[in-house]
């Protein structure tokens, strides 16, 4: 995961400092949005969630604890990096209790800010991979279920149809039987592709986002 994949919401009430931090963070390749208060931050996060939040601890309307609680309520929770000029053991403990991921002392040193964002980006990437692995596990479970539920009756269906076709029994027409057999074979092919699914690849079809079984197989 590169910096360009990360949207950083910067919450700082000092206009010049907010712009300065935003420019530096963008220089490192991150995308940024910038607000000045807790209320504006929560509204922006509800509109478009951010992957990382960089916030001052003390803001004009209230301390930034509601931002941390918002992050903790998300799944996965985005890292919240807290900047503060009022470092104390009590404030650090409270921020950590509320869900802060990292701390930076003001005035913010660019190298320390960059390191904090790298740590946050790494956490986001690890969580992304965990969620992706969980999704693939669910796909595997669905594949096993489909194989169990479909393959057995499918084998019986194909056996009966092939028997009817060989015997030429009435009133079923051979052409109709062949169509049924071809359809059953198609179902079997779909099941095999689902069983071979290792990656989640998608294709657009009629405005729908569908899993591409061919691209997702080994």
From TrEMBL:
Q: Which Pfam families match?
A: HisKA, Response_reg
Enzyme superclass (EC): transferase
Say which domain of life the source belongs to.
Bacteria
Gene Ontology cellular component terms for the protein in this record: cytosol; protein-DNA complex
What EC number is given for this enzyme? 2.7.13.3
Q: Which UniProt keywords apply?
A: DNA-binding, Phosphoprotein
| This protein's record includes keyword tRNA-binding | no
> Which GO biological process categories is it annotated with?
regulation of DNA-templated transcription
Which residues are reported to carry the modification 4-aspartylphosphate?
56
Q: Which residues form the Death domain?
A: 1-48
What is catalysed by this protein? ATP + protein L-histidine = ADP + protein N-phospho-L-histidine
Q: Which residues form the Response regulatory domain?
A: 7-121
GO molecular-function term, one example from the UniProt record: phosphorelay sensor kinase activity
Cited Gene3D superfamilies: 1.10.287.130, 3.40.50.2300
**Protein name, as recorded:** histidine kinase
């Amino acid at each position: 995961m590169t910096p360009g994949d990360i949207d950083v919401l910067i919450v700082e009430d000092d206009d010049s400092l907010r712009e300065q931090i935003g420019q530096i963070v963008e220089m490192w390749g991150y995308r940024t949005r910038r607000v000045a208060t807790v209320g504006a931050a929560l509204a922006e996060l509800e509109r478009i969630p951010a992957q990382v939040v960089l916030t001052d601890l003390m803001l004009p309307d209230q301390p930034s604890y509601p931002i941390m609680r918002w992050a903790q309520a998300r799944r996965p929770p985005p890292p919240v990096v807290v900047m503060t000029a009022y470092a104390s053991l009590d404030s650090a403990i409270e921020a950590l209790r509320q869900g802060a991921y990292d701390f930076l002392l003001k005035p913010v040193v660019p190298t320390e800010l960059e390191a904090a964002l790298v740590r946050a980006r790494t956490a986001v990437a690890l969580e992304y991979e965990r969620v992706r692995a969980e999704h693939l596990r669910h796909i595997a479970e669905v594949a096993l279920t489909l194989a169990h539920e479909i393959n057995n009756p499918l084998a019986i269906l194909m056996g009966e149809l092939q028997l009817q076709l060989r015997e030429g029994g009435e009133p079923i027409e051979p052409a109709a039987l062949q169509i049924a057999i071809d359809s059953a074979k198609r179902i079997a092919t779909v099941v095999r592709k689902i069983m071979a699914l290792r990656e989640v690849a998608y294709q657009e079809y009629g405005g729908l986002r569908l899993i591409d079984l061919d691209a997702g197989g080994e």
